[in-house]
Design brief:
6 helices; globular; mainly alpha; 138 residues
Amino acid sequence: VVAMYLLDAQFIDDPAKFFSGTLSAMSAMLQLEVPHLNIMTKMDLIPEHQREELDNYLNADADYLMAMADERTTEKQHRLNAALATLIDDFSLVRFVPLDATDEDDIAMVLGQADHCLQYGEEEEPIEPKEYEEPDED
């Protein structure tokens, strides 16, 4: 059994929503106590200008998230932003796998990650690649 937590990519538009989604994913990971995979869905809907900063969200970079939240909140809320970022950074559990449902490579990557979580196929013997035989020149 592997648990999959799905978070929409639209959550990166608002740092408060992303904090909420990340903390919810962390809570699910700690409560379920099973292998867990966090997936950021609807990656095809992300505008091109936000794709440059995508790694900060996929890896839940606490410093970046705190800076983004501080830009959009009042000074009274900066301590709360710092506390949430510290909580995310202290556990360092949450990472997201991107999923664009229209891209077969992304689907294969998510399935591969799920197989890795389940340790599927570890008992099998590795397959030796066939040696390349040059064709006869006659």
